[in-house]
Amino acid sequence: MVPLSWYLVLAAFVFSCGLYGALVRRNAxxxxxxxxxxxxxxxxxxxxxxxxxxxxxKATQQVVRLDGQIFALFVIAVAAAEAAVGLALIISIYxxxxxxxxxxxxxxxx
Amino acid sequence: xxxISVTSLGSLMPEIILxxxxxxxxxxxxxMSEENDSGRGYMAIAVVFLLAAIVxxxxxxxxxxxxxxxxxxxxxxxxxxxxxxxxxxxxxxxxGGSFMNQHVKGRGEFWTLFMFxxxxxxxxxxxxxxxxxxxxxxxxxxxxxxxxxxxxxxxRSSEAGVKYFxxxxxxxxxxxxxxxMLYGATGSLMLVxxxxxxAANKDLGTLVLPAVLLVLVGxxxxxxxxxxxxxxxDTYEGAPTPVTAYLSTASKTVGFAVIVRVLLIGLGSxxxxxxxxxxxxxxxxxxxxxxxxxxxxxxxxxxxxxSVAQAGYILMGLVAVxxxxxxxxxxxxxxxxxxxxxxxxxYLFTNVGAFMVVMAVEAFTGGSDISAFENxxxxxxxxxxxxxxxxxSLTGIPLTGGFMGKFFVFGAAVQHQYYWLTAIALIxxxxxxxxxxxxxxxxFFGTSGIGTYAGEVAASGEGTVATSAMSIxxxxxxGLVICVIATVWIGLYPPSVIEWANNASRTxxxxxx
Lengths: 110, 513
Fold this sequence. Notes:
The complex is a heterodimer of chains A (110) and B (513). Chain A is mainly alpha-helical.
């Protein structure tokens, strides 16, 4: 079986790519994509920890816990809700300003 | 494992009442047409249900700690926080309601979201499981993004919404990564089991530091701790002022409640790892907040930075709480945690009140710049005097609620021999006095005179408007009176509130009362 650490490295890599994208890109949509990538990195983490955790009941040989998986499912749902709200906000600013560049969102500063 | 029972629904009564209120507004909204719908009905429903939800919370205040539906902790600490949150939201609804009804389209949606955001906060303060914790914080965040950007025609509002959304989602993703590390380290999602896992296995210590840092990014964002505060000024300035009022008070209360719960219950055995981090964050937050607030010209922005600085003082309570042995805490009047709670309670009335004054001035002059406050005492003595009291309370002058909070928090820090931390906090309080007093000076002894407060008014030659009295609507008057009375009342050492806070903090620290 593939060792747990491989999954963790993959998760950390995906998460870091997302974080890099979210911090560096100046386009609001691209930042949103980075955020989704971060959440997916976390999902790999959660499911890997669940799979390698203490989940099998020794006597009956059945899976007794599903918490990590359930958490990952909820994260996917939250990511969808977040994307919906985020896109709605970005569209509302695009209608006013005809741009989604973060550098041009400069009405508020000081 | 106990199944869903009727008795556990009793503990969830406040949330159920709020849910019914929210759904009622949603149903009525579909039945009404947009034109002949002033939104006053929704506002009334929201206020009534928020007040109705306070009743069961009040009854639960001295309850024995128990867990409902396996994941919702109903202990005095959570109940105290719920009490604070509901009062805050009810005050915002009463005072800010008519402002929102005038400015937004889709009033039914606004008030539904307003009720739902209260439910989210209410669940977040009592979640004892990482899943519910994450879900309720996300519920709170996503609803808040919408409320901040709710005035779609206003470019500033939508810009504030987008900025809040982008900062917030990155922060909560980082927090989630930290949560996954906690889960991986201990194999459990329940905070209590995480705490046991860490206490049993000291080898996990290497994981604690990164996990705490990652989780604190997300929660520090919610409470606007520096360096995660950059969103706060922009969002507070651009958002509709009633939304700002609850973001800076109720939402911040939730953030602190969650920090307390995660750190004390989940990571209590590694307090020596995170206390220095919190102390550093606290100093950095209050210093940055106060120094940047000094050079602001907009009152709304000044209050935003001041609320960043206040978060630093509040955090001191948590720094002081765990640094002594448990036996010691029993005899202490100030265990830090009760200071944090009293501070949050007093801060709620003060800051909601201050933002409501800003809202009233904004509605009249069209801006929240300091020049809009020039000679406010002549245009509206009531507004000026209530703002005066709120600013004194924010500074921490005795006989105001703010003093009570600072007294307990600083006192706890001194008792635990954090002299340097207290000294820095006192210096910061002095710095903060400058910009608070500057607003007071403008209100009472404004020099730049009449007509300059709003460019348009001066340009159109109607300078006389500046001297005419400002009319304040009755709901705003009621809200302001409540805020002023509560601010002064908390300053008079009210035994009941202090007793609740003491009781709740001792229960959470596992001491019994």
